[in-house]
Design brief:
Length: 78
């Protein structure tokens, strides 16, 4: 089911895409995992900023730089 979901999600985001089995395995599936992973990580970082554990600054190119908020006690990794 995970592969089916990943293929359909990729095609939803890239409706003109077409590829061979090898291309799908090498390009679509890893890219889909990366994009989903980035969304999850961005959500987690946003929560850590909201909790005051991290702070963020937007760089001139639009990227966001995250760092430990030095005004709060250092969190202990689990």
């Amino acid at each position: 089911m995970e592969v089916e979901h990943s293929v359909l999600a990729y095609l939803h985001g890239h409706p003109q895409a077409a590829d061979t089995l090898r291309g799908i395995v090498n390009w679509w599936l890893p890219q889909q995992r990366y994009e989903n992973g980035c969304q999850h990580i961005e959500h987690v970082l946003g929560r850590l900023v909201a909790e005051g554990l991290l702070h963020c600054d937007q760089l001139p190119d639009g990227e966001v730089l995250y760092a430990l908020n030095k005004h709060t006690r250092s969190p202990q990794p689990h």
